[in-house]
Amino acid sequence: TPNLGRIDAEPCRSYSETYWEARDRFLTAATAAGAELTSLEVVRGGKDSPSYTMDVAVLRGSGDEKSGLVVHSSGVHGVEGYSGSAVQVAFLRHAASNPESIRRGGDGASSPGPFPTIVLVHAVNPYGMAHYRRFNENNVDLNRNALPERRWSEVKARDPNVAGYDDFDGLFNPPRPPTPWDATASFLLRAVLNIARHGFLNLKRALVAGQYHNPRGVFYGGGGLE
Prior knowledge:
By secondary structure, the protein is an alpha+beta fold.
């Protein structure tokens, strides 16, 4: 397994401010590293709207039984993808400038040993990343969407309030866009009242469990595999 040690990279060279900048940096770094690239259109563009793409870079390993496989993804939660993208870009730049560190494990070995195939998946949720939101173009939280087929009928049939989500619906899903008052003092007041009524542990449970019955609500897991 590669032991890359410490990779020194200036944050400003790896972090991006937009999805488009992050994608360009990823593709450029992957090409320089000699990776195999595949682009998958997640959201098809229209006359007045761009397309959004998940890109996959593959650095082939030694190919023997002990080489293994390493998969690193970024952007399942959209806006969080900027950090994951920076890690991927920094790694690819290191691989491009120090290819032997991948093959020799970065530990000074005189000859290459088994080393894994490395798969980097960039922007699993490109729409959310581009729009600085956690959820995708269908308001689905992809982290709650990867269910086996048999589980979908179960989550759809269960009590919508099984984890207490509906108890906090007014707090989670305001009926109108927030004003500065709503986003500060009003929110804190409503949060305190909800916690006093239902309990903090129940609030945490409702947040973690998410929901599968309100497509317009936050933490929506979807109605099927995205």
